[in-house]
Known about the structure:
Helix content: 25-40%
Structural class: alpha+beta
Shape: globular
CATH architecture: 2-Layer Sandwich
Number of strands: 5
Order of helices and strands: EHHEEEEH
Number of helices: 3
Strand content: 25-35%
Distance between the termini: 33 Å
Largest sheet: 5 strands, mixed
CATH class: Alpha Beta
CATH topology: YaeB-like fold
Amino acid sequence: MQFKPPRNDYKYHWTVHVQDKMRYYGISESLIKRIVRFPKRIENGIAPETVAVMQPTSSKKQEVWVMYKLQVLSSKKKIISAWRYPGISPIGKKIPIPDEILQELEGVLE
Length: 110
C-alpha cells in the first residue's frame, strides 16, 4: 500500500518529520487524529509549549505517542512527531522518546 501524506487543513498542520515517522511506523492520519482528540494519557512534551498524548494499541503491549503544539493565533494543532513505544511507559516520568527521534526533532522545532 502506498503512503498518502496528510494534508494541512483548518485544524491540523502536519510537519515533514511526522509524515516520515508515519511512514516508518505505519501510523495512519486517522489514528493520530483519534489520539489527539481522545488521549488515554497527556504529558508535557520535551520541547517548550508542546503536548504529548498517548493511546495503547489493541494488543496492549505497545503505545502510540503523538507530540503536537497548539498554535495560539489560529487554534490549529501543529503535529510535530509520532512514534510507537514498545511496552508500557512509566506514568508521570519523562516521555520515552527514542534517541534518533530526539535528534531529528531538534531541527524540526527550530
